[in-house]
Specification:
This protein is α+β, with helices and mostly antiparallel strands. The protein has five helices and twelve strands. Helix 1 packs antiparallel against helix 4.
């Protein structure tokens, strides 16, 4: 007597499906960090900067990575009296606005925000405050998207591993006993086949290491669930644990049962 069974569809579909969903979620976070949030910032920057340069068509497509809020705060904390520290750190200002008295502001712009530096000539106007204006998303918030992407990616790896295990499960019954995955149970060690559940699983009890162990056989994991029960009952003389009336349990897990992964030892 030899009976071989491959995996049911439910477990592998469950794990691979959620693994794909996690990969898509990780990709969504990565996209936002790499392109989505930056482009949203640039769109806001163009809208606010257009009046300074005489029209949005005069604006660049990108504004660069500097300055950032932290870089601005580091320079501002030194209380400079002229614009040299800002020019040395960020280069020439993006734009300048002045009135007839020479009072005005320099604007240093990046993809993350803008410094408005009040000036009189080339001197910083200390009677007014330099201001950082953040675009829609700050640099830290954008960079966090890459870290958020790691969480579903790790989950996807685990779920993919479980999916591979489910897809490669093999069950064999021959003259020597039952082999379930890498576990071999000789017929002589089997003690009972009971605790059938209408959702589609049954427990095989056996002796190992001086103690009674349990292997759960689940129709969400093995394709030939009913055939395995029939073969074990025939080989060991166990009473059929299924209720009279012949419920169809060999459905490959199409009906809801326990959460995949919780029904086998």
């Amino acid at each position: 007597m030899t009976l071989e069974s491959g995996p049911a569809k439910f477990d592998q579909t469950y794990y691979f499906g959620f693994a794909i969903a996690c990969i898509l979620l990780a990709g969504w976070f990565y996209y936002d960090g790499k392109w989505g949030y930056i482009e949203a910032n640039r769109a806001e920057a163009r809208k606010k900067l257009a009046p300074l340069v005489g029209g949005v068509e005069k604006l660049p497509q990108e504004f660069g990575a500097h300055p950032t809020k932290k870089e601005f705060e580091k320079i501002a904390a030194t209380n400079p009296t002229d614009t040299t520290p800002y020019r040395e750190a960020f280069g020439a200002p993006f734009a300048r606005a002045t009135d007839e008295s020479g009072r005005g502001a320099l604007y240093f712009v990046s993809d993350y925000g803008m410094i408005t530096l009040p000036v009189v000539g080339e001197r910083i106007d200390t009677t007014r405050q330099a201001v950082w204006t953040k675009w829609k998303r700050g640099k830290d918030e954008i960079e966090q998207q890459f870290y958020w992407a790691l969480l579903p990616l790790v989950a996807a790896v685990y779920l993919g591993y479980r999916g591979v295990r489910a897809a490669t499960l093999r069950v064999r019954i021959d003259d020597e006993g039952l082999t379930y995955g890498g576990l071999h149970i000789p017929f002589a060690e089997m003690t009972a086949l009971r605790d059938y559940n209408k959702k589609g699983w049954v427990d095989l009890y056996y002796k190992s290491g001086g103690a009674e162990q349990k292997l759960r056989i689940d129709n969400q994991k093995v394709a030939k669930f009913d055939e395995i029960i029939d073969a074990l009952c025939a080989a060991k003389g166990f009473a059929d644990p299924r209720p009279a009336g012949g419920e169809d349990t060999n459905n490959g897990g199409d009906e809801a049962g326990e959460e995949p992964g919780s029904s086998s030892t």
